[in-house]
Design brief:
The complex is a heterodimer of chains A (about 120) and B (about 110). With about 120 residues, chain A is an all-beta fold. Helix content of chain A is about 0%, strand content about 55%. The model of chain A has no long low-confidence stretch (mean pLDDT about 95). In chain B, the strands form two sheets. In chain B, strands 2, 4, 5, 8, 9 and 10 form a six-stranded mixed beta sheet that branches. A four-stranded antiparallel beta sheet of chain B has the order 1-3-7-6, with no helix packed on it. Chain B is globular, with a radius of gyration of 13 Å. With about 110 residues, chain B is mostly beta strands. The chains are: A mainly beta (about 120), B mainly beta (about 110). The interface of A and B includes residues 95 and 102 of A.
């Protein structure tokens, strides 16, 4: 079964760039799925950051689009997140997840499964 | 703000039935998916599609939809069901964007 594992620095300085990688095991990143990043500030809800397809196509949350870059490395079966110009408001647990999609009788659905365990990134000097 | 609206908190007596709702315009065209999140843990998918449960999710969890409202029903709530529950779907703009509801804290009394 597919498993996801986030990695990257747990502390980033204000105005710096947050960089995380999600390693995919037990399956291929070139499958017919989108690969997503989701974050959760302490004590708050889930926020979708964006997603990438193995072709390199991306979709981003409009509220973060100017600062976000998601890339894929098929040779390493992983994808990455970069978030620039970070502030304390970007402090959160960052999750990577596989997005599954289906349309049945014209009604669409997408769902995230599996998820990585999450990694806490703190923005502080 | 979220394009999917959930009640912040709901409570249920042990063994009783509870419904958690999610409202949004996009739900007229897309199914919602539902996640359970316990403290310090990653979200876990509990319902997707019209009413599908991943392997390992108890059959007391079910999903339904009507108009702009999706519902997650727990029939015979157990103590271990106490958690935060989030819905998600596409946004209503027609773009390939994803939105999550604000989450519902379920307390089992």
């Amino acid at each position: 079964q597919v498993q996801l594992q986030e990695s990257g620095p747990g502390l980033v300085k204000p105005s710096g760039t947050l960089s995380l990688t999600c390693a995919v095991s037990g399956g291929s990143i070139s499958s017919s799925n989108w690969w997503s990043w989701v974050r959760q500030p302490p004590g708050k809800g889930l926020e979708w950051i964006g997603e990438i397809y193995h072709s390199g196509s991306t979709n981003y949350n409009p509220s973060l689009k100017s600062r976000v870059t998601i890339s894929v490395d098929k040779s390493k079966n992983q994808f990455s997140l970069k978030l620039s110009s970070v502030t304390a408001a970007d402090t959160a647990v960052y999750y990577c997840a596989r997005k599954n999609s289906i349309t049945i009788f014209g009604v669409g659905n997408n769902w995230f499964d599996p998820w990585g365990q999450g990694t806490l990134v703190t923005v502080s000097s | 703000s979220s394009e999917l609206t959930q009640d912040p908190a709901v409570s249920v007596a042990l063994g009783q039935t509870v419904r958690i709702t999610c409202q949004g315009d996009s739900l007229r065209s897309y199914y919602a998916s539902w996640y359970q999140q316990k403290p310090g843990q990653a979200p876990v998918l509990v319902i997707y599609g019209k009413n599908n449960r991943p392997s390992g999710i108890p059959d007391r969890f079910s999903g339904s939809s009507s108009g702009n409202t999706a519902s997650l029903t727990i029939t015979g709530a157990q103590a271990e069901d106490e958690a935060d529950y989030y819905c998600n779907s596409r946004d209503s703009s027609g773009n390939h964007h994803v939105v999550f509801g604000g989450g519902t804290k379920l307390t089992v009394l």
